[in-house]
Design a protein that fits this description.
Length: about 210
Amino acid sequence: MTRTTVILCRHGESEGNREARFGGHSSTPLTELGRSQARATARRLAHTGVDVLFSSDLSRAQETAQIIGEVLGLPLEVTPHLRERSVGIFTGLSFDEARERYPSEYQALLRREPDSAPPEGESYVQCRARATQFLQEALAKHAGQRILLVSHHLTLYQVVLHILGLSTPPSGPRLYVRIDNCALHRFEHYEDGVWQVLALNDCAHLDQTLEHA
């Protein structure tokens, strides 16, 4: 039976992460720690192997994937399907700024309703649909290979829920899976549709970088 390995990786720490800002579809670069995390991730993946590398086309994910691809000797394919969830009017704002400028919209965002979208943004349902559609296409095209997807916090959370067969809760997360910067989530997918979970939020390779954060 054909077995395909899927590895999910969030980008390294970005300037937006460090400053506690909404990233969304903004172009925010990696910090030096983020680059160090990406290099550590590349060294880890060099031991397990990767055949195909995909990334969000946003700069923080693309830079992370480029570092990994250079170490592994892999070409990189970028796609908007793996972008972070768009947060519309909140993009680039700090959490405090968003709460002060748009109090009612901010409170609506905190309710995490799956069909609700911030003004000019997208809902969890929309984000999940585009990312999981891309995942299914990658599984069909690269069956039997080891696929690495470099993406973002909320997008990967939705992909993990999809793999686990869980819907997005109607009013906030009843199950929350941590999606840390450059953590690895590893799964195996079988041709009969069965998923096997190998690891969630594996940060062992980041121990040294975290010590110097």
